[in-house]
Amino acid sequence: MKRENAKEASLRTLMIAGLNGDTAAYRALLSGLSGHLRAYYRGKLVRAGRGTEEAEDLVQEALMAVHTRRHTYDPTQLLTPWVYAIARYKLIDHLRQSQSTLTNVPIEDASEIIAAHGEPATESSLDLNKLLARLPDKVRLAIRYVKIEGLSVVEAAARCGISESAIKTNVHRGLKELSAVISQEKTK
């Protein structure tokens, strides 16, 4: 556990330094993350019945996404959950785009691939952002952290500075409200 905490602290320190313009620290961060991402993708690809050679492409895609989205990282929060949320979405997109059969996909990822199948990612993202914009900030953030970024309720509560039960309530109420909005849109 201490090793994980030290590694997280080290990566987070490198990220913050990189955000502040330290290019050497940023290069070290990307180098450190590549090893973690490579191991993550190899494990997931093997479980999906895929070859580990696909891991390198996914590592590069994830690192590019980390780079292009680095401005969205909140330096007061843990880095690795943010990175792994990006990595997870890259994996799901890759499996969906490469027409992976659902029988080979790990069960925890199958529902997300089914939900995403057949819809352009950009349009879905824009629609989702429009829907979320209708919600109060605390509700929108709870849904974003738990349902979109894949943080645990504990992590989301820490990030929002509210209780775990408040996160659960906000997610529940927010999803209920979004469902009502979607139902109204369909009847128009």
Automatic annotation (TrEMBL):
Domain RNA polymerase sigma factor 70 region 4 type intervals: 127-178
One of the GO BP terms on file: DNA-templated transcription initiation
Gene3D superfamilies cross-referenced by the UniProt entry: 1.10.1740.10, Winged helix-like DNA-binding domain superfamily/Winged helix DNA-binding domain
Keyword field: DNA-binding, Sigma factor, Transcription, Transcription regulation
Record's keyword annotation contains DNA-binding: yes
Domain (RNA polymerase sigma-70 region) ranges: 48-99
InterPro entries, alphabetized: RNA_pol_sigma-70-like, RNA_pol_sigma-70_dom, RNA_pol_sigma70_r2, RNA_pol_sigma70_r4_t2, RNA_pol_sigma_r2, RNA_pol_sigma_r3/r4-like, WH-like_DNA-bd_sf
Listed CDD domains: Sigma70_r4
Tagged with keyword DNA-binding: yes
GO-annotated molecular function: DNA binding; sigma factor activity
Family from the record: Belongs to the sigma-70 factor family. ECF subfamily.
Name of the protein described by the UniProt record: Sigma-70 family RNA polymerase sigma factor
Species for this entry: Candidatus Acidiferrum panamense
